[in-house]
């Protein structure tokens, strides 16, 4: 087998992965603009420059594309939050409470970056979650609950005088603000939105 022959399967795999990613990006834009039910499989193929039947080489249906988008981003958020919190938990126990505010700032940075870079996914999540198969909806909700719980635990550690329930309410309020602001302030510069959104989230969580 020549070097060229050995490289060919990898090149095909890479091309397939690139096409799949292209379809996801097309779907993200179209679902956000027209709604899941307003987009046909033909539209996804056309946006990616391929025929509708060719889409089936990558996804079994447009519901499968939606599942990849929404379950995928929920997994991303949970794993990202877990990594940030785990970095604090690896420190000596006596330092955990003192580091809680710093951990919250890192969580805020992480989520603001997400909200500002993926507003289309947030819109799809808000509008089209019900279009997912029931099992996938349960998966998304389970991942989201775990993400909220991670935040709430850190908020409660930063404010021992708050109950976990109160911390959870604050977290939901902050998520609502962070997820909606990029849409509401579209005429403002990204830099200003990012700075003000981080400041507002920190104020809502009462951290300096």
Q: Would you summarize the structure shown here?
A:
By secondary structure, this protein is mainly alpha-helical. The protein has helices at 3-34, 41-48, 52-55, 62-89, 93-117, 119-128, 134-158, 164-184, 190-204.
Shape: elongated
What is the end-to-end distance? 62 Å
Described by strand count, sense and barrel closure, the largest sheet is: none
Spans where pLDDT lies below 50 across 5 or more residues? none
Structural class: mainly alpha
Number of helices: 9
Summarize the amount of helix as a percent range: over 70%
Residue fraction in strands? under 5%
Q: Work out the radius of gyration.
A: 20 Å
Mean pLDDT across the residues is: 90
Q: State the total count of DSSP E strands.
A: 0
Order of helices and strands: HHHHHHHHH
